[in-house]
Backbone:
């Protein structure tokens, strides 16, 4: 034991001195290992610091209260909830049966709060607030934030929380966005009250929230009255209650309160949750607790990625250790001459990896600690929440450090074995001896290639498991890496046709496969990954281009506003006209039922909705419902469903285009021109007061289209649930069905304003559709966005720019990455080759070879390694991409056939899935030509033309 300790101690000391003596090479290897360790350690520290303990989460949610009571919106019907208070559902199973109405409606939460409790109301709504730049839609929260019960929910940054009804506090993000500051005055649109900003605060779990805080009753109620007085629907306000009670709320108390339709988030329950068997919600079908375990597939993927990353580092760092061992061969020979065994030689070289690995671990982890601590405010801002603390998990950091040490040791294994096999005489005299390549390793590699290819083929053709394709591809790539020495030998046969310098470089690389193969394998691994991702991305781009459906004709756009009865529509139309190269502008409106300010689909008090009626004769049989609410599609066979899926009644729109309520626009003939509808009959029909239809099923046998005005949405919903006729007033319009199937971009029908007015329909401005005489520039679109931002309106802006390639930058980045790895690996191999062939270079100089031969030889040595790695990597990288694409094709085809069998989605006339396999020839050309050429030129430039002329050593 003592002998082993002392021998390793001496080996470590020798390795440490060698590392210090060769600072450049040591720094290179240390950086290769330390940078990934730095990234992983920083990620671990950031993730762990961002994790909140249950106590911290409750402090940010409840403050100092014991529970938060919320209305579950079940009309008082009993509910089941999870211990966290995040999920709930009605307790009865009958609500899931067909024809049964889902419980809905408010509950008086205050009646469930125990007597003697301290209660604090917490209400939230929205309002458009005036800012330095215009208007900003902002969340308004009424909470007595200075009350001790609310302490911890908001963190004061400057000033104080509101103490008067005319004071308001704001989040720091709101102040940044609005251009206001503490002490500024604040008003709301359509509200004549003025508030003073008394302080700024932040929400620890939502730093990006744009929110203002007022005292209870100081803003939302008077603002709602002012809005209603203006004829607009009042904003929705949600109220929860912070409750503080001696002893808190146990799980049994929470369940008792649930019976009254109230959801409870209890501090006691969250800190000490009940067993899953005691949670009735988890016993309900479909409501089991989400598993917190690690996904085996995800773990396998992470393990594969980490393993391949370690392999890449070992392949890159291994030649560097080999360079060190080669330059220290006289020293190693002296160790052997003085009685050292081969194990001592191996220990010295391995200690080099150990020293570098330990140093890389220390440097990476220390830098991660320092940078994470120093950059904590920036990381918190990026994550959008304050960390619970600076959390360090020593065991996890030790595991990461062990990974660094293991990587260093593995990198030095092959150089250590190679150095220990050198005879003492060869080490002292500098002779290279006879080098024999391993004949077993290529056979193992060939077997791994066959096995990996078979697994990937099975995963792509027989199974639908992406993990099998990825795992098989990884095994095959490892096999190719193992076969690299043999493959390098095959490249050597091409040397006979090359000029002198490249022939010398290639033969030298083949003769010294021990240093060439790791570098070629490193290039191979990096290029294979790049080619695989590039091929997959290019294939997905081709599929995306084929499947792309335009939202509007090329260059056309839409700016739609559905809030506040279109109050800001004139300003939006004017902004579009001023900032964009508009050719034709079509002003459009929408039908409103109830108050003019009602939102679409009857959202808000006193609001209704409308619907375009599909005649019973035109209804798709596949969507028919039985009187009891059950689905009738099961009565058809698969062949009948496939036939019905092609029936014109069952063909659905493809979903592209703009989204408007019921697909109906109120507009004049210019909208047809914007939509690209070249049909004089359609324009004439609009002028004659007819409805223009692009959707055949909505036109009945009499050539009319019915629009039903629903004034009571709740009664209509109940009628739908009970499979009864929907109550409402029916308006019929003579219709013109546009012939053929032109793409109307989401618009199913158009009604002229005059016809709508004549029928007694109420309309409000919706916005504008417009065409342009040229594609708007980025600067013009940015100006339009700025103009809209000043209005503070929620504008749905669409400008059709055609299909955009989103992966071009990714492919370029991958090519650059592969190029850097290639140049680095080839440079290391070249340095090793120069150290190994110094005697040959001296001989060339002695016999009168021109100085440029030295540069040319160095350049070609580097280029040969780069070229071999790129060629092999390009061939190996195609396999995983093809396998993944074949797997996707099978999955999409399976879904397509299943959809046809069931008659889903109206895809009867849809083509089969198009899943192409596209090779990114530009990326491959850059890798195959530019990268080896660049590596060769770079090596030639940094190599000295003249070496030191010396007498050749006798052998």
Residues:
């Amino acid at each position: 034991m003592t002998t082993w300790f002392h021998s390793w101690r001496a080996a470590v000391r020798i390795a440490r001195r060698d590392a210090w003596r060769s600072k450049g090479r040591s720094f290179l290897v240390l950086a290769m290992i330390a940078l990934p360790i730095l990234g992983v350690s920083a990620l671990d520290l950031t993730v762990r610091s961002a994790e909140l303990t249950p106590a911290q989460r409750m402090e940010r949610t409840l403050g100092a209260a014991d529970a938060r009571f919320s209305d579950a919106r079940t009309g008082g019907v009993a509910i089941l909830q999870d211990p966290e208070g995040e999920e709930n559902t009605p307790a009865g199973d009958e609500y899931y049966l067909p024809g049964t109405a889902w419980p809905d409606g408010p509950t008086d939460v205050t009646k469930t709060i125990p007597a003697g409790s301290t209660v604090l109301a917490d209400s939230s709504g929205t309002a458009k607030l005036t800012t330095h730049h215009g208007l900003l839609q902002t969340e308004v929260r009424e909470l007595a934030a200075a009350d001790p019960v609310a302490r911890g929910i908001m963190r004061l940054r400057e000033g104080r929380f509101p103490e008067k009804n005319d004071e308001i506090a704001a989040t720091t993000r709101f102040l940044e966005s609005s251009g206001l500051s503490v002490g500024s005055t604040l008003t709301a649109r359509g509200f004549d009250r003025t508030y003073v900003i008394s302080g700024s605060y932040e929400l620890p779990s939502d730093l990006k929230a744009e929110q203002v805080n007022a005292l209870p009753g100081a803003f939302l109620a008077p603002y709602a009255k002012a809005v209603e007085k203006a004829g607009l629907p009042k904003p929705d306000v949600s109220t929860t209650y912070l409750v503080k009670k001696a002893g808190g709320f146990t799980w049994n108390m929470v369940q008792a309160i649930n019976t009254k339709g109230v959801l409870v988030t209890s501090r006691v329950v969250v800190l000490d949750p009940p067993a899953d068997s005691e949670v009735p919600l988890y016993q309900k079908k479909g409501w089991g607790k989400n598993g917190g375990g690690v996904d085996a597939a995800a773990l396998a993927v992470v393990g594969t990625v980490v393993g391949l990353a370690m392999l890449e580092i070992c392949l890159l760092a291994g030649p560097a250790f080999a360079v060190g061992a080669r330059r220290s061969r006289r020293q190693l020979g002296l160790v052997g001459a003085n009685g050292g065994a081969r194990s001592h030689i191996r220990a010295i070289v391995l200690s080099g990896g150990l020293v570098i690995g330990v140093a890389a671990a220390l440097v990476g982890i220390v830098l991660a600690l320092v940078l994470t601590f120093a950059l904590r405010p920036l990381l918190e801002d990026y994550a959008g929440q304050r960390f619970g603390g600076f959390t360090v998990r020593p065991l996890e950091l030790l595991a990461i450090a062990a990974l660094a040490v293991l990587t260093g040791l593995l990198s030095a294994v092959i150089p250590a074995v190679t150095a220990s096999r050198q005879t003492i005489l060869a080490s002292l005299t500098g002779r290279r001896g006879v080098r024999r390549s391993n004949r077993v390793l290529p056979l193992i590699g060939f077997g791994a290639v066959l096995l990996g290819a078979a697994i990937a083929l099975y995963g792509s053709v027989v199974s639908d498991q992406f993990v099998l394709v990825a795992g098989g591809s990884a095994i095959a790539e490892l096999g190719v890496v193992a076969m690299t020495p043999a493959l390098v030998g095959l490249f050597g046969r091409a040397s006979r046709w090359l000029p002198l310098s490249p022939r010398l470089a290639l033969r030298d690389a083949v003769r010294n496969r021990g240093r060439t193969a790791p570098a070629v394998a490193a290039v191979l691994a990096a290029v294979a990954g790049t080619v695989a991702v590039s091929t997959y991305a290019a294939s997905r781009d081709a599929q995306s281009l084929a499947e792309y459906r335009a939202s509007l004709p090329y260059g056309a756009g839409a700016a739609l506003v559905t809030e506040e009865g279109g109050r800001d529509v004139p300003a939006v139309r004017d902004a579009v006209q001023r900032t964009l190269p508009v050719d034709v502008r079509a002003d459009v409106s929408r039908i409103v039922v109830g108050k003019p300010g009602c939102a679409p689909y009857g959202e808000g008090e006193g609001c209704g909705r409308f619907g375009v009626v599909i005649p019973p004769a035109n209804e798709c049989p596949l969507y028919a419902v039985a009187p009891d609410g059950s689905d009738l599609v099961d009565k058809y066979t698969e062949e009948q469903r496939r036939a019905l899926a092609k029936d014109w009644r069952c063909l659905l729109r493809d979903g592209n285009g703009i989204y408007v309520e019921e697909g109906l626009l109120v507009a004049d003939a210019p909208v047809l021109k914007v939509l690209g509808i070249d049909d004089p009959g359609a324009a004439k029909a609009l002028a004659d007061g007819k409805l223009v239809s692009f959707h055949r099923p909505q036109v009945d046998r009499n050539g009319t289209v019915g629009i039903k005005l629903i004034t009571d949405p709740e009664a209509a919903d109940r009628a739908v649930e009970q499979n009864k006729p929907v109550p409402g007033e029916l308006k019929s319009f003579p219709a013109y069905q546009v012939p053929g199937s032109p793409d109307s971009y989401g618009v199913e029908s158009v009604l002229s304003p005059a016809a709508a007015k004549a029928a007694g329909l109420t309309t409000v401005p919706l916005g504008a559709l417009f065409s342009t005489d040229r594609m708007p520039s980025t600067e013009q679109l940015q100006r339009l966005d700025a103009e809209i931002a000043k209005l503070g309106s929620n504008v749905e802006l669409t400008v059709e720019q055609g299909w955009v390639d989103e992966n071009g930058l990714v492919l370029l980045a991958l090519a650059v990455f592969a190029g850097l790895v290639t140049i680095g690996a080839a440079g290391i191999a070249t340095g090793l080759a120069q150290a190994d062939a110094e005697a040959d270079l001296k001989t060339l100089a002695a016999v009168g070879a021109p100085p440029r031969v030295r540069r040319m030889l160095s350049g070609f040595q580097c280029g040969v390694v780069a070229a071999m790695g790129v060629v092999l990597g390009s061939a190996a990288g195609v396999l995983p991409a093809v396998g993944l694409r074949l797997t996707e094709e099978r999955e999409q085809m399976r879904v397509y056939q299943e959809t046809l069998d069931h008659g889903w989605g109206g895809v009867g006339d849809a083509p089969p899935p198009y899943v192409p396999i596209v090779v990114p020839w530009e990326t491959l050309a850059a890798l195959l030509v530019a990268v080896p050429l660049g590596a060769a030129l770079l090596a030639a430039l940094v190599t000295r033309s003249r070496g030191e002329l010396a007498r050749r050593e006798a052998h």
